[in-house]
Design brief:
The chain is of the alpha+beta class. 29% of the residues lie in helices and 28% in strands. The strands form two sheets. The protein has a seven-stranded antiparallel beta sheet. A two-stranded antiparallel sheet has the order 6-7. A hairpin with a 2-residue loop joins β3 (70-74) and β4 (77-79). The structure holds zinc ion. Zinc ion binds at residues 108-110, 150, 154, 160.
Length: 188
């Protein structure tokens, strides 16, 4: 089932998600709905807050994005990221690998038509629980790393506009304000 995507201005986007400790049938259904919703919106990531749920759950799928490559390493072996998509991440944590950061454009399904450059660590190590309830660990770089950091932020009530530098954000301010005003009108 395709779910409605929450837009900026809805307070749920500012709430931290609760940890998920077990994969119930309700959670399995939620994963299916989030994947369907993410794909129908042509997104590469979706966090539970974006469909109105305050849970530590995000879906990511960078399949088919050719102009912005991704890298993935499991147990020190380079793997093909597409073989591991979609990623279902519960309670994800990450740490930076190395000191390289990269500035790149980002969008967000909760901010239609808004894109801005954001600087983030280029390579990270991720730990999470997957949809089978197993603990997983991998390293990633490029677009996949950026997408996971973006979704991790959502799970903690942080939005990509918070990560933009002042000039980028001020250039987008009027468009962001319009989305916020429309959302608030719908919520009233
Ligand atoms: Zn987002």
């Amino acid at each position: 089932m395709i779910l409605d995507i929450v837009k900026y201005g809805d307070p749920v986007l500012r709430q931290k998600g609760e940890r998920v400790e077990s994969i119930t049938s309700e959670i399995t259904k939620l994963i299916d709905d989030m994947l369907e919703t993410m794909r129908s919106a042509h997104g590469i990531g979706l966090a539970a807050q974006q469909i109105g749920r305050t849970l530590q759950l995000a879906t990511v799928d960078v399949t088919g994005v050719e102009d912005r490559p991704s890298r993935m390493t499991i147990n020190s072996k380079n793997v093909e990221p597409e073989d591991y998509m979609p990623l279902i991440l519960f309670n994800p944590e990450w740490t930076t690998v190395g000191e390289t950061t990269e500035t790149g454009p980002e969008g967000c399904l909760s901010f239609p038509e808004i894109y801005g450059d954001i600087n983030r660590p280029e390579e990270i190590e991720v730990k999470a629980m997957n949809e089978k309830g197993d603990n997983i660990k991998f390293r990633c770089g490029g677009l996949l790393s950026r997408a996971i950091q973006h979704e991790y932020d959502h799970l903690h009530g942080i939005l990509f506009i918070d990560r933009m530098d002042g000039l980028v954000r001020s250039n987008l301010k009027s468009d962001i304000d319009i989305i916020q005003a429309e959302t608030k009108k719908l919520l009233d």
